[in-house]
Amino acid sequence: MTAAAPRAERLAWLAVPLVLIGMVALFLTVGSLGERRAELERIDVSEVLAAADPVAAYGSSELQLVGWYANLADDCHPDPDQRPDASWLERTCPLRLLLAEQPAAGATQAALESIGLRLAAPTGEPFPPRAQPDGWHLLLEQVVVTGHFEGNTFVVTDTDGLVH
């Protein structure tokens, strides 16, 4: 014959999961207080392009932008006066843009510049690699770029990969 568990023991076994659930709820509540971390917020490039003055709207704070990446070299004419030690400032060759929608193949540089956000890199090449050495380079998926505004150009410090 088995003895029934004492009432205190049954209550203790019931209290353990309730205490754990309460602790998880408390951690979630405390963790959600305050502002969201900027590095977790992704902004669609269409929002940035819709702003009358993106530099005034976003300042020089670090942002993560999501959009369609295009890299063109076929209409490219490098500036002969460009200093070789400041090649990252070259904004026309190759043209790197973040677009709200994937552009049609064969669009001109001028057409893309009118609908896209110019990208530049302060050091190295934090852009997706080119598929071909010259001409068009489009990705088939959206990409996330991290950086800040300097003038009318978004200076990319990192690419976090494709949006899945």
What topology emerges from the helices and strands here?
Blueprint: H1 7-31, E1 42-44, H2 45-50, H3 54-58, E2 63-72, E3 95-99, H4 109-115, E4 116-120, E5 136-138, E6 143-150, E7 153-162
Counting DSSP H or I runs of 4 or more residues, the number of helices is: 4
Number of domains: 1
Please identify, by name, the CATH architecture.
Beta Barrel
Rg computed from alpha carbons, rounded to a whole number of angstroms: 25 Å
Major sheet attributes: 5 strands, mixed, barrel
Specify the helix fraction band. Answer: 25-40%
Number of separate strands: 7
- Give the SSE order as H and E letters: HEHHEEHEEEE
Low-pLDDT ranges: none
Structural class: alpha+beta
Intertermini distance? 60 Å
If you average the pLDDT, what whole number results?
Answer: 76
Give the spatial strand order of the biggest sheet. Answer: 2-3-4-7-6
Q: Identify the overall geometry.
A: elongated
β-strand amount: 25-35%
Q: Oligomeric state of the chains?
A: single chain
What is the C-level CATH assignment? Mainly Beta
CATH topology name, in short, is OB fold (Dihydrolipoamide Acetyltransferase, E2P)
Notable features of this structure?
164 residues, OB fold (Dihydrolipoamide Acetyltransferase, E2P), 4 helices, 7 strands, 27% strand
